[in-house]
Specification:
It is built from 7 helices and 2 strands, in the order ααββααααα. By secondary structure, the chain is mostly helical. The termini are far apart.
Length: about 230
């Protein structure tokens, strides 16, 4: 009976495909040792290795070595007035603004300082602020400061310029102290803004040691004269 049932099942499945052999059980499956030969197709590791070699050949992400970087050498000459002369096209990136740009920046900044001092001195003496007069004085101050900065800022490193700024700083600082303690409030209101602006500008243009010397001189004059701040 069992053999008849197996024959009926085989008939229902149809004939076995050509080139295949029917296996009665699992032990009839042929066994073989897998080959260790390289596969015909590239693996992901091979593709990644080739891609890395291509990238290293072109070096799209590598930074140049320090040995390949040439130092930027700028040839300068010292003029007769003590200033430095740099050939055109060799200025560093931070100097691309040029003398005209620095003049505009310094002139506007110092003019704003003059405007602030003009308002503060009116507030100190409790005087009515005449905005029209203050704006008019500020408009006159701007071109004057622009001319001064344009002429002296580029020559500030010269020795004669440092001496000039030192004298200007000491004179302006001492006179501001003297005027605020001795002269009338009207004179202080008129002279303090321009003198204070020149004082600050001269300190900015000086080297650190020269600026400290000017501050010590002004403080010495303040102590010697027995003046007070208020």
């Amino acid at each position: 009976m069992t053999d008849l049932r197996q024959l009926r099942k085989r008939k229902d499945r149809g004939p076995a495909p050509k080139g295949t052999s029917q296996l009665s059980n699992a032990s009839a499956i042929p066994l073989s040792i897998p080959t260790r030969d390289a596969t015909k197709h590239k693996t992901l590791f091979d593709i990644a290795t080739e891609r890395q070699a291509e990238l290293q050949g072109g070096q799209p992400f590598s930074s140049p070595s320090t040995a390949d970087v040439k130092p930027a050498i700028v040839t300068t000459t010292i003029n007769h007035d003590g200033t430095l002369s740099v050939p055109s096209g060799t200025l560093p990136e931070d100097s691309l603004i040029g003398p005209l740009g620095e003049t505009i920046f310094y002139a506007i900044t110092l003019t704003m300082l003059h405007f602030t001092l003009d308002v503060l001195v009116h507030q100190q003496y409790r005087q009515e602020i005449g905005w029209n007069m203050i704006i008019q004085r500020t408009a006159i101050t701007l071109p004057i400061l622009a001319v001064l900065v344009y002429f002296f800022h580029t020559r500030a490193s010269a020795i004669w310029a440092q001496v000039m700024f030192l004298g200007l700083s000491v004179a302006a600082g001492c006179y501001v102290i003297y005027s605020s303690n001795v002269e009338s409030y009207f004179a202080v209101m008129k002279r303090a803004p321009p003198l204070g602006t020149l004082w600050v500008w001269s300190v900015i243009e000086m080297r650190l040691e020269v600026a400290l010397l000017s501050v010590v001189a002004v403080l010495g004059y303040f102590w010697w004269g027995g003046y007070s701040i208020f």
